[in-house]
Design a protein that fits this description.
The complex is a heterodimer of chains A (257) and B (326).
Chain A lengths: L1 E6 L1 E3 L7 E2 L2 E2 L6 E3 L1 H17 L2 E8 L4 H10 L3 E6 L9 H12 L6 E5 L10 H9 L3 E11 L2 E8 L2 E8 L2 E5 L11 H7 L4 E4 L1 H4 L11 E6 L8 E2 L4 H15 L4
Parallel strand pairs in A: 1-6, 1-8, 6-7, 7-13, 8-12, 9-12
Antiparallel strand pairs in A: 2-5, 3-4, 9-10, 10-11
Chain B lengths: L3 E5 L2 E2 L2 E2 L1 H14 L3 E8 L6 H6 L4 E6 L8 H15 L3 E5 L2 H13 L5 E4 L1 E5 L2 E8 L4 E6 L5 E5 L16 E4 L10 E7 L12 E5 L10 H10 L2 E4 L1 H5 L20 E5 L5 H7 L4 E6 L6 H4 L2 E4 L2 H19 L1
Parallel strand pairs in B: 1-4, 1-6, 4-5, 5-12, 6-11, 7-11, 14-15, 14-16, 16-17, 17-18
Antiparallel strand pairs in B: 2-3, 8-9, 9-10
Helix pairs in contact in B: 3-4, 5-9
Classes of the chains: A alpha/beta (257), B alpha/beta (326).
Chain lengths: 257, 326
């Protein structure tokens, strides 16, 4: 099977967001594979181990994403593709990323494309469905279980707490939800092997795309941090008294009940 | 310039979801005096069209078919495309719900358009429509525009006030014909885990538990509190990882990002990932044994104490208050 995983390098969830010159300060931040994309990598490896084939991880970004691609290779992916658009496109958006990925994937005959259901930075969740539409293949978002049988796929999808049982066929794109699996940590031999696994770098030119083809459709005017909250009111006294005071406050001061 | 904006309605159990009215209100703002076209897609939805008009839609287009009783991306995308072709709108607004998140990128890709996901507010400056949306799960925000082409956006539930209902409002309601496309994804069964319960993303009140809840059974008092308040139960990653509850309840940077009117955090320490997912709630109550827990930093009200003592007391107190007021 040709298993493609679309992944993104993101800020570690531990990071506090700071601004400098009106944009998010990236210097010194810890970077990770987007956690939802880790589920996609893990699932692709498991499917390959059962059905055979190859797991190819693909990312759109800059040179710096090589580290996260190597981590995916250390987990067990076979090859990595870095679509480096940094020199060509500034401030790319989900449209940009999807356009570049679609162009790369269009002649790859992928059987299954896996990605996270959302990134923890931009948080739009658009790229998966956009790529599927671009490739004219079906997609299923927020999956928590997948079983492949020949060209059939049986899937369980999380929909606002309900579980949908779905049947569909390959080629297919899925976006992964928490609960799908427990991503493995790279093993030491895995890390050693990953250094020698192929990592191909391509630019827009190599895909036959112009800057205009993938220019972003959205424009960010401003980035800002939430306003700091004033210190809260810690209730005092005997517990039962605190509780009845809380109910009064919620009713008359906060007016939320 | 006045614009024509479509607002896609969503149903649940035969009713319009609250987010549909919020989406109409958002569309109204972006329309700048133009038209809001409500869109209803489903098996039998025509009876709900009038309510969309009463809540601010100027006109409603209905697409009905047996196969549209359940959402599928292929079916709903075809239905919506038919309406788009007929109406030639300047924009399309969805709720940022499971349906909206699944369908909107497909539609945007089909129309070669941009899409602003998860907008929490909309303002108009000159002719420009500016959307505010969270990034890093609410650790920061950005203001975004769609400089050219269609205005397509999804609207986060609980953030834009619906317009007051006006029963005297009338508007043109008409059906649009539809032919079933190839449905490549088939839903065989839907298992509702939280039957009859309030959905997290739309809940006005959320009672959330962390590691301090100690077990799956420990969530029972939280559920009772949520029931009294007509709210939903959520959890921190710690509680989900410890298997006290399902991942679908997880709130945080991984998991759901929620902004209810009232968030009651029980036995949650307040890791930065969890705070990202809930700190933009309107009012936050923290109940924790540890007075130094980070959750108190974002709380409006705090009780330092054992949740297993505080939560049942709170439930009783609310029941009493309810009995008095009714």
């Amino acid at each position: 099977m040709n298993l493609y995983v679309l992944m993104k390098r993101t800020f570690d969830t531990e990071e506090t967001i700071l601004l400098s010159d009106g944009s998010v300060q990236e210097d010194g931040a810890e970077w990770i594979i987007n956690p939802y994309d880790e589920y996609a990598i893990e699932e692709a490896i498991r499917i390959r181990d059962v059905h055979g084939g190859e797991v190819i991880v693909v990312t759109v970004g800059s040179d710096e994403a090589e580290k996260q691609l190597r981590t995916a290779l250390a987990m067990g992916a076979d090859r990595a593709i870095l679509l480096d658009i940094e020199d060509d496109i500034e401030n790319g958006d989900a449209y940009t990323t999807a356009r570049v990925l679609t162009e790369y994937l269009k002649d790859k005959k992928a059987d299954l494309i896996l990605t996270g259901n959302v990134t923890i930075d931009g948080g739009s969740g658009q790229v998966g469905p956009r790529v599927a539409e671009g490739l004219d293949i079906p997609y299923v978002t927020t999956i928590t279980e997948i079983e492949i049988d020949g060209t059939d796929a049986l899937i369980i999808r999380d929909v606002e707490g309900a579980a949908e049982k779905i049947s569909t066929t390959l080629p297919l794109l899925v976006t992964c939800q928490q609960g799908l699996n427990e991503p493995r940590y790279p093993s030491l031999p895995g890390i050693m092997k990953a250094k020698k696994k192929p990592l191909e770098k391509l630019e827009l030119d190599d895909l036959g795309l112009d800057e205009d083809d993938a220019a972003p459709k959205t424009k960010t005017l401003e980035v800002f941090l939430p306003s700091q909250k004033a210190a809260g009111h810690i209730l005092q006294g005997e517990l039962a008294g605190q509780v009845s005071e809380l109910v009064t406050l919620l009713r008359s001061e906060a007016k939320v009940i | 310039m006045p614009k024509k904006i479509m607002a896609v309605g969503e149903m649940r159990d035969g009713h319009l979801r609250q987010i549909s009215f919020e989406t109409i209100a958002a569309a109204k703002k972006a329309a700048q005096g133009g038209k809001v076209i409500g869109v209803l897609i489903g098996r039998k939805v025509a009876t709900l069209a009038e309510e969309m008009v009463q809540c601010g839609a100027d006109e409603v287009r209905i697409v009905e078919d047996e196969t549209l009783g359940q959402y599928t991306a292929d079916g709903f995308a075809r239905a919506l495309t038919v309406v788009v072709e007929q109406e030639q709108p300047d924009g399309i607004f969805f709720g940022h719900t499971a349906l909206g998140k699944d369908l909107s990128p497909k539609i945007a890709a089909k129309l070669d358009a941009g899409l602003v996901s998860d907008a929490i507010s909309i303002e108009v400056k000159g002719e420009e429509v500016i959307f505010t949306r969270p990034i890093y799960a609410g650790k920061a925000f950005e203001k975004v525009t769609l400089p050219e082409g269609l205005l397509i956006a999804t609207i986060r539930p609980n953030n834009i006030n619906p317009l007051p209902k006006d029963r005297a409002r009338t508007g043109d309601i008409s059906s649009v014909s539809y032919s079933v496309p190839e449905l490549r994804v088939v839903i065989q069964e839907v298992v509702r885990k939280s039957a009859g319960r309030v959905d997290l993303s739309e809940a006005k009140v959320i009672v959330a538990g962390g590691r301090g809840v100690k077990s799956a059974e420990g969530f029972q008092p939280l559920q009772e509190l949520a029931d009294v308040l007509g709210g939903a139960v959520g959890a921190s990653r710690g509680a989900c990882d410890a298997d006290y509850c399902d991942y679908s309840l997880q709130i945080g940077q991984t998991g759901k990002v929620v902004t209810p009117d009232l968030y009651i955090a029980c036995g949650i320490s307040g890791a930065i990932q969890h705070l990202a997912g809930m700190s933009n709630s309107k009012v936050i109550v923290a109940i924790n044994k540890d007075p130094d827990a980070d959750i108190f930093k974002v709380a409006d009200y705090g009780i330092i104490g054992d949740l297993f003592e505080v939560v049942p007391l709170l439930t009783e107190e609310l029941k009493k208050a309810k009995a008095v007021s009714s």
